[in-house]
Amino acid sequence: MMAKQQYEQLSPEWFQPAPPNVGEQEKINRPSLTFWQDAWLRLRENKAAIVGLVMIIILALMAIIAPMASDRTYKDQNLRHAKLPPKIPVLEHIHWLPFDGRDANGVDVYKQRGVKEYYWFGTDDLGRDLWVRTWYGTRISLYIGLLAALIDLLIGIAYGGISGYYGGRVDNVMQRIIEILNGIPYLIMVILFILIFEPGIISITLAMVITGWTTMARIVRGQVLKLKNMEYVLAARTLGAPTSRLIFKHLIPNVIGPIIITTMFTIPSAIFTEAFLSFIGLGIRPPEASLGSLVNDGYKSIQTYPHLMIIPAVVISLLILSFNLVADGIRDALDPKMRK
Amino acid sequence: MARYTLQRFVYMIITLFIIATLTFFLMKLLPGSPLQNQEKLTPEQKALILKEYGLDKPVPVQYIQYLGNLLKGDLGVSFQYDNRPVTELISDRIGPSAQLGFQAIVFGTIVGLILGIVAAIRHNHWEDYTATVIAVLGASIPSFVLGGFLQYFIAVKLQWLPVAFWEGFKYTILPTLALSVGVIASIARFMRTEMLEVLSSDYILTARAKGISQAGVIIKHAIRNSLIPVITILGPMTVNLMTGTLVIEKLFAVPGLGEQFVRSIELNDYPVIMGTTLFYSALLILAVFIVDVLYGVVDPRIRLAGGKK
Questions:
Q1: Do B129 and B141 touch, CB atoms closer than 8 A?
Q2: Mean pLDDT of A145-164
Q3: Cβ-contact A123, A84 below 8 angstroms
Q4: Which residues sit opposite A123 in a β-bridge?
Q5: Is ipTM beyond 0.85?
Q6: How remote is the C-alpha of A216 from its chain's centroid?
Q7: Measured in whole angstroms, how far is the alpha carbon of residue B209 from the centre of its chain?
Q8: What Å distances lie between residue B192 and B33, B112, B136, CA to CA?
Q9: Measured at the alpha carbon of residue A314, what is the angle toward residues A308 and A319, in degrees to the nearest 5?
Q10: Are B222 and B195 in contact (CB under 8 A)?
Q11: Most CB contacts within 10 A, which of A102, A121, B267, B306?
């Protein structure tokens, strides 16, 4: 009954054919997003990655500005101001924060010794300002991270691209070389370099130049092998594009996702390796400071002056953590298939 | 399979040979002489000493001798420890390192597997998030930082466990913990990813459709198949563990190989550095070789791809 009544209420005029608006249907209402806009949108939703990104920016700014803004340098010694605990203006009045200039026994060392200046992170046993030294060490960590990324981009991509593109015997020989290089542990490479050269930034850099790019080369090679038989490459070749154009204009841009992901994961592991080497005394030598060597120095007086170890340890952990978070986020954003 | 194993074996030998050669020629490149007080020695005495150590012969002959000695397991003598053979120094120190490494790998693997499996089963629940946070932190905090914090808070502040040295099981707990965090992080991450992939595959659906209980599906099908790729990370993990023992032994004053290695670097004791380097390399390369072969055994696709080359 109900259904029939309703049916009779319907008027035939309601069922006129719609006006032909073919163009209207095809219209795209939203702006189309490029690959990068799309990736950025996905990255922005990843809170952990954004926190990491902000932290990297803050740490990098501090590393650049703090040593320049301070009137003390990383190697200035002032024995009368040795082993001072951290003291920061304003924060010194908050009691549960360890920035009130009191040592482990609660004695205000600044008042006791009549020191008027503020050492924000305190000083070490030679009276060097830990604030400047920590940020100077962060500079070295960032330099190593950038260097590793650069090596990955320059050597890794070229090697992998050539190996994958030419294939055959060239590929075979190049892959065997990589396999042997990979067999030699990185640490042992560094030690060998340190024995010929002095311990320091040059040895670490050289060892990285020799071994750091193999993962990237392997990934680029695999992708190029897959892509080089695609139709669009054949089309470009038919049109007479030279090899260099094929590699750099057609193949590399299509491998850019995995390239960026690999680079991002290289950075934290390079930073970790430098800190580790400096910690066991193979890296940066005094008076220069690296986060690893600062932790090692601070470790010696952990019972009496824990701030000497804890501050650089927190900074290095934050640095590696932020890069890992951003790398994870970029992987998820660039390659949703890889998202776990 | 035999061909694949042989191929891996040949690579292993080539790599070892290259490392041994590199070490030898670097030793020759090094500045300074192995003789002490050489100004006081007469030319005859000098020649006698050089002859005693075989250093009077031309470099290529020395190289052949060195390789021959290596095959016999002779790594030379230390400069600093009263001319003691390097092999003896290594065998004296290997015990604590091996114990530490073994405890860390067993503890780390068990905890890592549990974390990874729980995270995958409770995907996107709080258990998953907790495991992910632990894995990210574990991968990010350097072992020497963690070791230092453990020492400061648990040993110095709370005084629950001894700060350092090596005098019984109680002394091994903190170093093992510091060393195993990296293992836990990488295993948990890997296991979670693998489990998630396996759990979404068709044969799991089939197993569920047949009416197998949740526990049965997880234990019989999911975990077993997820475990296979986990074998691949055992190789890189050995490398990490080795770098880990270097700092952890230094930090906790463990009388192991790593602690001696770091000290010989500080003392410029070249034969010990070289011998230990070779020993570590051989150990790692052997580990990678075993992992490669093992993986070929459990996953037939690998050895087919390897054999086709």
A1: no
A2: 88
A3: yes
A4: A129
A5: no
A6: 15
A7: 44
A8: 55, 9, 13
A9: 130
A10: yes
A11: A121
Indicate which of A184, A282, A319, A339 best probes the interface with B, i.e. most B CBs within 10 Å of its own CB. Answer: A184
User: Rounded distance, CA A167 to CA A155, Å?
Assistant: 18
> Do B280 and A179 lie within an 8 Å CB cutoff?
no
pTM: 0.80
B124 class by beta-carbon count within 10 Å (0-12 exposed, 13-18 middle, 19+ buried): exposed
Structure tokens at A6: 């309703």
The alpha-carbon gap from A321 to the nearest alpha carbon of chain B, in Å, equals 5
Number of A–B residue contacts, CB under 8 Å: 105
Per residue in B229-279, pLDDT (tens digit) is: 787 787 778 777 877 888 888 888 888 888 888 888 777 777 788 788 888
* Helix, strand, coil % in chain A, rounded to nearest 5: 70, 0, 30
Q: Which of residues 277-296 of B touch A (CB under 8 A)?
A: 277, 280-281, 284-285, 288
How far, in Å, are A150, A187, B139, B245, B284 from residue B239 at the CA level? 24, 9, 15, 10, 7
Q: Which tokens is B172 given?
A: 């091994």
Residue found by looking up tokens 């270097």 in the block: B246
| DSSP structural state of residue A247 | I
Q: Which domains does chain A have, with CATH numbers?
A: 74-128 (no CATH), 136-339 (1.10.3720.10)
Angle at A315 between CA A312 and CA A320, to 5 degrees: 125
Q: Which of B142, B250, B284 sits opposite A275 (nearest CB)?
A: B142
Residues for chain A: how many in total? 340
The conformation of residue A127, written as its DSSP 8-state character, comes to -
